[in-house]
C-alpha cells in the first residue's frame, strides 16, 4: 500500500514533510527555521512513505546507545501511514540489533501519545535531552 524509501536529509520530499509536521505542531518555521533541519548525532536513517507518487509520511531513527534507538520526526498525512512507517522503523531497528525502541511526544500532543501507547509503547524514564523537560512524555517498546 505504501512504498518506503530511505532518503538523505536533503531530500526535498522529506523537508516538505518536516514543514508539515512543524505546522501540525503549531511551530512557525519563520520564527524557528531550524525545525526544518535535523542534525542530532547518531542518525541511522530517514524514511519517506509514498502513496500514488506523493510523499505521505516520514520518520527517522537515531541511535541513543548500544541497545536503544529513538524514533524522531514521525509524521503522517493520512490514516494508516503512521503504522506503516512505524513498522518499517521497528524492522530496521531490529535488523541493526537494537533491543529497545524509544519515542517521545509533547504532553499536549495527545494524538501522538495515543498512537504510541496503542502501538505497545510504555512510559519510561526521561532520557537524553528530554531528561529535564516537563513538556515531554518519554516512551519505550521492547523489540524482542
UniProtKB/TrEMBL annotation:
<dbReference type="InterPro" id="IPR000182">
    <property type="entry name" value="GNAT_dom"/>
</dbReference>
<feature type="domain" description="N-acetyltransferase">
    <location>
        <begin position="4"/>
        <end position="144"/>
    </location>
</feature>
<dbReference type="InterPro" id="IPR050832">
    <property type="entry name" value="Bact_Acetyltransf"/>
</dbReference>
<dbReference type="GO" id="GO:0016746">
    <property type="term" value="F:acyltransferase activity"/>
</dbReference>
<dbReference type="Pfam" id="PF00583">
    <property type="entry name" value="Acetyltransf_1"/>
</dbReference>
<dbReference type="InterPro" id="IPR016181">
    <property type="entry name" value="Acyl_CoA_acyltransferase"/>
</dbReference>
<keyword id="KW-0012">Acyltransferase</keyword>
<protein>
    <submittedName>
        <fullName>GNAT family N-acetyltransferase</fullName>
        <ecNumber>2.3.1.-</ecNumber>
    </submittedName>
</protein>
<keyword id="KW-0808">Transferase</keyword>
Amino acid at each position: 500500500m505504501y512504498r518506503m524509501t530511505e532518503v538523505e536529509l536533503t531530500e526535498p520530499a522529506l523537508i516538505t514533510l518536516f514543514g508539515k509536521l512543524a505546522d501540525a505542531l503549531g511551530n512557525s518555521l519563520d520564527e524557528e527555521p531550524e525545525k526544518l533541519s535535523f542534525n542530532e548525532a547518531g542518525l541511522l536513517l530517514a524514511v519517506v512513505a509514498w502513496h500514488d507518487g506523493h510523499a505521505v509520511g516520514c520518520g527517522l531513527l537515531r541511535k541513543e546507545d548500544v541497545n536503544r534507538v529513538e524514533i524522531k520526526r514521525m509524521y503522517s498525512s493520512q490514516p494508516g501511514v503512521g503504522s506503516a512507517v512505524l513498522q518499517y522503523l521497528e524492522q530496521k531497528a531490529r535488523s541493526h540489533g537494537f533491543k529497545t525502541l524509544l519515542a517521545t511526544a509533547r504532553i499536549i500532543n495527545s494524538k501522538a501519545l495515543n498512537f504510541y501507547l496503542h502501538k505497545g509503547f510504555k512510559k519510561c524514564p526521561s532520557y537524553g535531552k528530554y531528561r529535564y523537560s516537563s513538556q515531554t512524555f518519554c516512551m519505550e517498546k521492547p523489540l524482542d
